[in-house]
Amino acid sequence: MAKIILLPGDGIGPEVIEEARACLAFLSLRCDLDLEFEMHDFGGVAIDRHGTPLPESTLAACQGADAILLGAVGGAQWDAAKERPEAGLLKLRAALGLFANLRPGGAIAGLEDLSPLKPEIAAGTDILVVRELTGGAYFGEKSLDDERATDLCVYSRAEIERIAHVAFTAARRRAKRVTSVDKANVLATSKLWRKVVTEVAASYPDVALDHLYVDAAAMALVTNPRRFDVILTENMFGDILSDELAVIGGSIGLLGSASLGSSGPGLFEPIHGSAPDIAGLDIANPAGAIAAAAMLLDTALGLPDMARILDEAVELTLRDGVRTADLGGSAGCAEFGARVREHLDSRLGKRDALLELIAMNRGCCG
User: Fold this and answer.
1) Are residues 256 and 283 part of one domain?
2) From 239, 298, 311, 326, the catalytic residue
3) How far apart are the C-alpha atoms of 206 and 109, rounded to whole Å?
4) Which domain holds residue 115?
5) Is the entire prediction scored with pTM above 0.70?
6) In this predicted model, what pLDDT tens digit does every residue of 254-311 receive, in sequence order?
7) Which of 210, 215, 320, 345 is the catalytic position?
8) Coil, helix or strand for 269?
9) Same structural domain for residues 155 and 254?
10) What is the pLDDT of residues 14-35, one digit of tens each?
11) Considering 3, 91, 176, 183, which one is annotated as catalytic?
12) Known catalytic residue: 311?
């Protein structure tokens, strides 16, 4: 049995997580995956109910899970709270040691029309952003008063080395190219980043490495995205660039992500925010949450075939023209999820028939 903790969170989080959970539950039932789901409060809703965005009971449940599936957190109603919902996410990442954030994205073959970029620019784009997740300005010491504010950006050699190894290892399974993104012409942390990444690259002679300043990388993502295979970068740069990457496919609502550590459960989530302005209207795009569920199947549970079937079901749904408002369509969140499960049903039916035929042939041949 694999225990999956669900953290629906705020805004559209509960809506998209329900569709992702339903897809996982469907696969579990049809393919005997024996998945168990447990829901816990997290983010703004946890502030309202428990006074903190990360209750002890939620953290304990996450620590004992096989994987965690998160919706989204945040909303203007918590701007004046002692702790914002996002603080719970930072604490959860730190508590679980989740230092590597993997965000794949690009254009879907045959669906380049979804991209705001010209088809000839978007076509063939397949990028993995490897973002360091527990260092940098987001986690540095902070100060704030009416006249002055500071956010300390700190990186150690060890932090850079471990995320670099993740990126180079991932590149070996892809096109064997790593682009390290920094601002080494200005920032001391980036100077160390570039030095250490170059040193780590020596252990991966089969992987090509180049360096880009973050501003140049941002421009290249929308003018020549096929130049990239794996983008390796620090926390804040990775946050921004991966959201820009989402544009290439057509919507930030399409992409999922995985946050991983050296051991323990991973955290899987869509890269979009809580979008409180459309919460409860059944118009959110659940594709990113479902993509995150597919990453969970592959990375956390070691079920790459199930992950591929789920990803293909999402693509088939989009090819059918079933698109939510962010993609210019009129389909609702629940409708999109239901159509994905219809394609799962069809794909699994064909798979079962093929397995049965193979078994019969083996029996005939003794």
Assistant:
1) no
2) 239
3) 28
4) 104-260
5) yes
6) 999 999 999 999 999 999 999 999 999 999 999 999 999 999 999 999 999 999 999 9
7) 215
8) strand
9) yes
10) 999 999 999 999 999 999 999 9
11) 183
12) no
